[in-house]
Amino acid sequence: MSGEDPFSNEEPLLPPIFAWTWPGSTLTWAIWGFGILSVGYGFVASLSMMDVDGFCFVFFGLVVMGFCCPNPFAVMMKTCVPGDSDEWTVHPLPPMHSSQWHLDRPEWNEKYAEWLPDPLARFEADGPEIRCEKDGDKWVVYYSGQELVCESCEEGNSVAGNECKECGGGDLIRFDNEAEASARMQKLIARHEGDDAQTLIFTEHPRNHRYRKLYNAKPPLLTAKFLYHAASVMFLAGMFLGMPSEHRGNLAPYATGLLLFGAIGTIISQWYNKGIVEAWDTVTSIIKFLDEGHTELVGQVRPSTFLPLDIVHVDGYRDPNWTFDDLVAWSWNYRVYECREERYYDDKAKTWKTKTVCNWRHVRGRSDRRDFLLHDGSGGVIVDIKSFENSDIGGPIWTRVRPGKTGGGDVYNHGDIRKHEWSLWALRLGDPVYLMGRIRSRPFEEIPKGMVANNSSRVHHTLMAVGEDAVRRRAKLRKGTEFSVLKPKTSALSRLGVLLMIAMTGFVMMAMGA
């Protein structure tokens, strides 16, 4: 995030009563200007002609100007979390390279007398970086990158070169065998079990302390959009009251329409707002402390097992830029833009004619999904993506309009084909994912033996996220962080006030003879 941190001061992010916003782009400014011209013309026309007909332009202009003013809560969200794309946007970003994910950190296995990958390592928190290398006939443990553990003072202190940062000594631990080195690695990992989760979770995690003010912020009671639209309804009512009573009977259909529009709009607004409240009010869990039940999770896609991911060749092409080996969910599609001549009868000319009709036609495609590990910096949990019926892996990440050069399927050329297009939608390693689902136990035979960092209170490696609904909670999975799926909040007055005013205007018009 560049510039001044909006969370760095103690001032509230939004005023509680009223917040004014202006159009946010050149296009909306132009439309807003057109709206104010319409308002000015309506006023002048009404005053010069001494009738209410010009109020139609005032009403139209105010409606347009209101739609050009953004929701202040949306503007605040955009300032706090720039971008709402499918990518990580707030720095520092999560570790993006697989070498930083502890996927294959080894431990010494006495039974087989060799170093084997620790199946629990990928479930641990990111950091510290610990590895072991042989130096002559001794073994050396590297702690936090290239720094070595010092033996002269408290365990865990490190040295740069040959000098300890704490005591100034230069005694470096040398282990006589692999078992001793492996035991020290496990001990160093366990030392970090007490680390504060706030220091572990990713910057863009909604439980990060920096977003506390955002989640506690309340939308202002009144907004510019509400004032514009409320004024437009008042002018509509004024137009009706300014008409002679004998002409009001002709407005009965309009009065009924206003009443129905206001009532139905209020119901739809209430129903839509439930989904927004659901996303805001459900507390996102930290995976390190995860337990069974229905919850929200946000994290990064990582491999769930030691097995390599499938190599995907889009439409069978073997070209390097058509080949992917880091996809946990994918779908590719090959389509063509096809044109054909159609005959139709022209009623005016009383004769048969032909016209060219073009549309996209699906030729072929494939898709697949597999379980993955969702990691939020504090720990990882398995996600059964196939169980999520309501899932969205985002827009196309790759598109081509010409076929590859090696391998591939037959290019479709039957008929008048104007364009070819190959597209790939995918969830890749490193991508952010938001999900709401149920956390339940994994099948016993799939649970790796042991405890994460030898801590018996950590059970998230025994759990998995599945797409099961709960009361007032619908299971869903989305590519992107939680901020990419949250919708801006509005106050009840700003959201329902104008709709209720429209319904009341329609009711009054009907009661007064419309």
Mean pLDDT: 85
Helix content: 25-40%
Strand portion: 25-35%
DSSP helix count? 8
Structural class: alpha+beta
H/E element sequence: EHHHEEEEEEEHHEHHEEEEEEEEEEEEEH
What is the domain tally?
3
* Strand runs, count: 22
Distance between the termini: 57 Å
Q: Main β-sheet: number of strands, strand sense, barrel status?
A: 5 strands, mixed, barrel
Low-confidence stretches: 158-162
Alpha carbon gyration radius: 31 Å
List the helices and strands and how they pair.
Layout lengths: L17 E2 L6 H24 L5 H13 L4 H9 L25 E4 L4 E4 L12 E6 L2 E6 L4 E2 L8 E3 L2 E2 L13 H14 L20 H5 L5 E2 H18 L10 H30 L11 E10 L9 E2 L9 E2 L2 E20 L4 E19 L2 E4 L4 E4 L7 E2 L3 E5 L15 E13 L3 E10 L21 E4 L9 E4 L12 H20 L3
Parallel strand pairs: 1-9, 16-21, 17-22
Antiparallel strand pairs: 2-3, 4-5, 6-7, 7-8, 10-15, 10-20, 11-12, 13-14, 13-19, 15-16, 18-19, 20-21, 20-22
Helix pairs in contact: 1-2, 2-6, 6-8, 7-8
